[in-house]
Amino acid sequence: QVQLVESGGGLVQAGGSLRLSCAASGSVFSINDMGWYRHAPGKQREFVARISRGGGWTVYADSVKGRFTISRDNAKNTVSLQMNSLKPEDTAVYYCAAFEGRSLAPTWGQGTQVTVSS
Q1: Over the stretch 24-45, which tens digit does the pLDDT of each residue have?
Q2: Using an 8 Å Cβ cutoff, are 70 and 51 in contact?
Q3: Smallest Cα–Cα separation from 81: which of 65, 90, 68, 97?
């Protein structure tokens, strides 16, 4: 099994930046795509970004395109999310996700809180 631990959340003013990181451990050889999702109060968890195993393919939610960048370092078993030009509506708990093998259901981290003040 894979375990995921996120870090890097916090409080930032609108227009600021944060960088989230997620460290994977355990059966990391089974990980294919990795991604980030978020869950804001009163809303359903939503997709943010996803990256392929080799890092050559990425996809973003329209709401973050041009502001957020996902990357991964397979040598360190980490995936990161650089978040720039943050908006109050980006406030949420951000979750790292790892897609193992052919499974459609990802393994989740515990989440990290991001709060953007106006």
Answers
A1: 999 999 999 999 999 999 999 9
A2: yes
A3: 68
Kindly list the distances between the CA atom of residue 115 and the CA atoms of 18, 56, 58, in Å, as whole numbers in the listed order: 10, 30, 25
Residue 60 has pLDDT above 90, yes or no: yes
Q: What is the enclosing helix (H) or strand (E) of 63?
A: none
Determine the Cα–Cα distance for residues 87 and 10; give it in Å rounded to an integer.
14
Find the helix or strand (DSSP H, E) in which 86 lies: none
Question: Across the beta sheet with 18-26, what order do the strands follow?
Answer: 2-7, 18-26, 78-83, 68-73
pLDDT digits (tens, 9 = 90+) for 67-83: 999 999 999 999 999 99
